[in-house]
């Protein structure tokens, strides 16, 4: 029987090298994730009254939150026993990986600090930043594709990929996730613009959590397990792997946020400029103002004249 599949084993994770320095596709696409989400965030804020450097400062906090949270999360969610014995190796970013759930926790923490620094309400920031996380998620998953990692179970579907030296095709789950994250961005941006850039507090954040982590919970059924000791315990006790277990609290939080948003009021529209009124006001200033005298004032003036006489 003729087998349809895509051979991905020829793809080299290394893009190029400079001497002994190896530049990998994953690093390039991770950088693209931050750059693309930065410009998407700037575009999103063009109708909001924020300082010009607001997106620049937010980017710094997002980068730090993502990298620290994703690295620490990967170390302790998937291989905590090893890193508790060798904590200094947490800094060896070239050894091991990055956890998306850890990155999510890192971003939430970093944006909380950013909100305190900028005096902006925490939920106001979250309702806007989470929209562009889908952009970053797309590029990061494409990086996973170039690394031939975190793919799914074997499949006979025609779009199955043969990764590494496997003699069978597998679900390219990183493509599924990447395309879904891109869709998440477009859906949330549409909702945000449809609500005239002033959604009810907690609405966009709640939608984001539900869309992303319900999907993440479901796709774990066709992804290969990470085979960590803690994950084996979870599978034996509750029947869920690490990705699904970590997704559940985010889904619950998303439900709470959506329910809470129902009882919130939409922010008042920003005061719009009125050029026509301003033009009339300037035009009236150029004309001399005529002093009008009422009948009462005229009578009182005549009486005073008669008294003088």
Short structural summary:
This protein has helices at residues 25-44, 54-78, 80-85, 100-118, 122-147, 173-194, 203-219, 229-237, 242-262, 275-286, 295-308; strands at 6-7, 14-18, 21-24, 161-162. With 309 residues, the chain is mostly helical.
Any key phrases for this structure?
two-stranded parallel sheet; two-stranded antiparallel ribbon; 62% helix; 309 residues; globular; mainly alpha
Explain what this protein looks like in three dimensions.
- With 309 residues, this protein is mainly alpha-helical.
- It has one domain.
- 62% of the residues lie in helices and 4% in strands.
- It has eleven helices and four strands.
- The chain has a two-stranded parallel ribbon. A two-stranded antiparallel ribbon has the order 2-3.
- Helix 1 crosses helix 2 (54-78).
- It starts with 5 loop residues before the first strand and ends with a helix.
SS-based class: mainly alpha
Overall geometric form: globular
Largest sheet, spatial ordering of strands:
1-4
Task: Report how far apart the termini are.
Answer: 126 Å
Helicity level: 55-70%
Q: Provide mean pLDDT, rounded.
A: 86
Low-confidence stretches: 273-285
Count of DSSP-assigned helices? 11
H/E order of the elements? EEEHHHHHEHHHHHH
Strand content: under 5%
Counting DSSP E segments of at least 2 residues, the number of strands comes to 4
Largest sheet: 2 strands, parallel
Quickly count the domains: 1
- Rg is 29 Å
